[in-house]
Amino acid sequence: MLSTNIMAVLKDLTPAVVGTVSGDSPYLAFVSWLIAKDEKTLRLALSSNSKTVENIKANPKVAVSVFGPEVASTIYGVAKIVKEKIEDIPFGVSVIEIDVENVVDNLFPGATVKGVIPFEHTGNIQKAIELDEKVLKALKE
């Protein structure tokens, strides 16, 4: 189950690292479209043709590492694609839901994380913001 600290970090679009399985090897991807739907469920959005989506279809076991104020945790679970494509987006973006099975606190005694991963859009900021709004709406449905 997700703690209140993790829920606070995952209330909006959150940069994180998602681990999947590719054959018999681990595969990591940096994502920013990630939220906690509730204490037992994560939602993330990824390009429909991404390696991560391909891996989830073949093996649904995933790990998500999140970092924020007083949080450095890895969330383990089982993923499923709940929407193949978000309708309002002109290219393929899939919505994935992760059923949380286990949460591991990676902080060690005497240390803490002081903030979130700094993240900002580059390029056409207005289009990026509009895309984020559409994706966030789909994640919260």
Give the topology.
Elements: H1 4-9, E1 16-22, E2 25-31, E3 34-38, E4 41-47, H2 51-58, E5 61-68, E6 71-83, E7 93-105, H3 125-140
Question: Top keywords for this entry?
Answer:
3 helices, single chain, 21% helix, Pnp Oxidase, Chain A, 141 residues, 7-stranded antiparallel sheet, alpha+beta
> Which structural class best describes the helix and strand composition?
alpha+beta
Shape-level CATH architecture: Roll
Kindly state the mean pLDDT as a whole number? 94
Query: Secondary-structure element sequence?
Result: HEEEEHEEEH
Which percent band covers the strand fraction? 35-45%
Q: Rg, please?
A: 15 Å
Largest sheet: 7 strands, antiparallel
CATH class: Mainly Beta
**Multimerization state:** single chain
Q: Give, in spatial order, the strands making up the sheet with the most strands.
A: 2-1-5-6-7-4-3
Distance between the termini: 21 Å
Query: What is the total tally of β strands?
Result: 7
Q: Low-confidence segments, ≥5 residues, pLDDT <50? A: none
CATH superfamily: Electron Transport, Fmn-binding Protein, Chain A
| Backbone shape | globular
CATH topology: Pnp Oxidase, Chain A
Fraction of residues in H or I helices:
10-25%
Q: Give the domain tally.
A: 1
